[in-house]
Design goal:
Helix content: 10-25%
Radius of gyration: 18 Å
Shape: globular
Number of strands: 11
Largest sheet: 6 strands, antiparallel
Strand order of the largest sheet: 4-3-6-1-2-5
């Protein structure tokens, strides 16, 4: 398993594509000098350095599946007071270079060989999307089930790609016209179809969402030892 230490070197990545996911989130496709050896679920640190030497860095999960290439994608939500996210959204364009370090993380990873139940809240879907993409790329979509909870259709990341037989979107405040599930919080009945036998649970979202989703999985019979959680806080 590739789990670089925190002393892994910084490298320069070139921005080769920027595309919007929602009104407040953008995906940045980066070209690295060397092939990325990341696993689905890992993250990179992005560092910005001002002319006076001041620097700020933030961690962003990789959204793209491991494919042996030198390109990765990170999806960044813009926070009003976020030093790094605001710069990425408002200033960075194709052709710019960024300092990055990684990949980092060894617990919240999926290597594509065993069943996985993926539960994401809002922007917590990012590392889970890397897992879903990996399963599809491997021709093994039956190995994963993804349940993502978002406020409304306008808040759904990867809306053109995420839907499929392996995924369920739970809208908590407003749903598309004619959607089969009324708006409301994630519940046990949403997770029931996703409970693959022997699956490891991967939960990513805010602390409150992660706690609630963990309780639902345990109540449904998933062992706590088989649940991996990554909590997202503000990462400006």
């Amino acid at each position: 398993m590739n789990v670089p230490s925190r002393t892994s070197p910084w490298q320069t990545a070139t921005v080769i594509q920027v595309r919007p996911e929602t009104a407040r989130a953008k995906t940045f496709r980066l070209a690295l000098a060397q092939p990325s050896r990341h696993l689905a679920g890992q993250h990179y640190v992005v560092r910005l350095t001002a002319p006076d030497g001041y620097s700020a860095s933030r961690s962003y999960s990789v959204a793209s599946a491991p494919d042996g290439s030198n390109e990765i994608e990170v999806t960044v939500e813009r926070l009003e007071d976020g030093e790094v996210s605001s710069f990425l959204h408002d200033v960075v364009v194709v052709g710019d270079e960024l300092e990055i370090r990684g990949p980092i993380g060894g617990w919240f990873v999926w290597e594509g060989a065993s069943p996985a139940v993926l539960v994401g809240g809002g922007s917590g879907v990012v590392p889970l999307m890397a897992m879903l993409r990996l399963a599809r790329n491997l021709g093994r979509p039956e190995l994963v089930r993804l349940v993502v909870s978002v406020r409304s259709p306008a808040d759904l990341y990867y809306s053109d790609e995420l839907p499929g037989p392996e995924s369920l979107v739970v809208y908590t405040r407003s749903a598309p016209a004619g959607y089969g599930r009324p708006p409301g919080h994630l519940n046990a009945s949403d997770l029931a179809p996703a409970l693959l036998p022997g699956a490891t649970g991967y939960i990513c979202g805010s602390s409150g969402f992660a706690d609630a989703a963990s309780t639902l999985l345990v109540t449904a019979g998933v062992s706590e030892a088989q649940i991996r959680v990554e909590r997202f806080g503000p990462s400006g």
